[in-house]
Design a protein that fits this description.
Helices cover 25% and strands 6% of the residues. By secondary structure, it is α+β, with helices and mostly antiparallel strands. The model has no long low-confidence stretch (mean pLDDT 82). Strands 1-2 form a two-stranded antiparallel sheet. The chain is extended and about 50 Å long.
Length: 95
């Protein structure tokens, strides 16, 4: 996907024309895993523990839940969400 972005930007700079790219995150992950010289699937992930979750229960469309903690943090910029989780497909894809 990054290569497609670079190719599109290069095309825009050289010809002035834009481009459209259709890509799948899931398919990209599969290709990366299948083409890897290291078999990451050989070592299973550790089971999720209570320490992996946030301390706050959140009311969701499917009942109370807790979010998984982010893998990293930035000092002075705590992770937060403006809205609770919703049912899959309930929000339009918009940026």
């Amino acid at each position: 996907m990054a290569a497609a972005v670079v190719r599109g930007l290069t095309q825009r700079l050289t010809t002035g024309a834009g481009c459209e790219v259709r890509a799948s995150l899931a398919r990209t992950a599969k290709l990366l895993l299948d083409g890897s010289p290291t078999d990451y699937r050989a070592a299973p992930l550790a089971a999720e523990t209570r320490d992996d979750q946030t301390d706050i229960d959140e009311l969701t469309a499917w009942g109370p839940a807790r979010r998984v903690k982010p893998p990293a943090s930035v000092e002075g910029a705590p992770m937060s969400w403006d809205y609770p989780s919703t049912t899959l497909g309930s929000s339009p894809a918009a940026w």
